[in-house]
Amino acid sequence: MNKLLLIMPLLALTSCASLMPDTAETGQTSTTSVPEVADAQTSAERPVAAPSQFQPARFAGHSQDYIVQSPADKITIQHFVRGMMQEMVMAMQDVNEQTPVAVASFLYLDTDYNTGNMLGNQVAESFMHELHNFGVKVLDYKLTDYIRVTETGDLVHSRNYEELGGTLAARYAVGGTLTKHKDGVMINARMVEFESKVVVASAQSLVPAKIINALMPSVEANTTPLIKGR
């Protein structure tokens, strides 16, 4: 009788043990299941491509970035001309890398268009630089066919029309006017086709007086500001 009583608890314990899950296996399964789920979620996720950086208008696919952040004390006329060039290039439908373009001096609007000035010449130089950077074929028509050696320097440019070629192979001209404003100078730029006189692109920009007066004439004795009263 005593043996029977001892056997019955043993059978009960054996049956309970058979019904309980293997703690080692269960623990192993539970620890590996979490990473597996995480891996599944990670594999299901796809990297999102970063949005392409906005780029300003390009002429014929040129990749130079013209949006340049500069400190306020480093801003020059070149920055304003660059902005106008960005505006003009949107309308230059018939101009490509093979279209010859000439740039003329910018003249004050209230003159007889017979006298140039340092500001207008600098604006023209800046436009030549920007046009070239956009891939436009720019003609330097003030270039002579020789280098003139002098005591002060070796010269290849001239403003004497008799030293320059008589034929200008440009199809378009870039020029414009300057208008004095109480806050600076308004630059009116345009590209015009020689044959038809049609304006194919234009832009305007108000350059602050501080930027204008930062230009210094080569003759130091001339200290008159470009904008009187400033």
Q: How many beta strands in the DSSP annotation?
A: 8
User: Cα distance, first to last residue?
Assistant: 124 Å
Write the CATH homologous superfamily of the largest domain.
ABC-type transport auxiliary lipoprotein component
Number of helical segments?
Answer: 5
What letter string, H or E per element, gives the SSE order? HHHEEHEEEEEEH
Percent range for β-strand residues: 15-25%
Number of domains: 2
Based on secondary structure, the structural category is alpha/beta
Radius of gyration from CA coordinates: 38 Å
Task: Compute the average pLDDT.
Answer: 76
- So what's the CATH class of the largest domain? Alpha Beta
Shape-level CATH architecture of the largest domain: 3-Layer(aba) Sandwich
- Low-pLDDT stretches are 16-35, 40-67
What about the largest sheet?
6 strands, mixed
Could you tell me the CATH topology label of the largest domain. Answer: Rossmann fold
> Which shape, going by the Cα principal axes?
globular
Biased composition (Polar residues): 25-44
InterPro entries: FlgO, FlgO_dom
Domain FlgO: 83-210
Signal peptide: 1-20
Question: What would you note in describing this structure?
Answer:
The chain has 230 residues and is α/β, with parallel strands linked by helices. It folds into two domains: 2-44; 72-212, Rossmann fold. The chain has five helices and eight strands, in the order αααββαββββββα. Strands 1, 2, 3, 6, 7 and 8 form a six-stranded mixed sheet that branches. A hairpin with a 2-residue loop joins strand 6 and strand 7 (184-193). Helix 3 (77-89) crosses helix 4 (118-133). Residues 23-48 are annotated as: Disordered. Residues 25-44 have a biased composition (Polar residues). Residues 1-20 form the signal peptide.
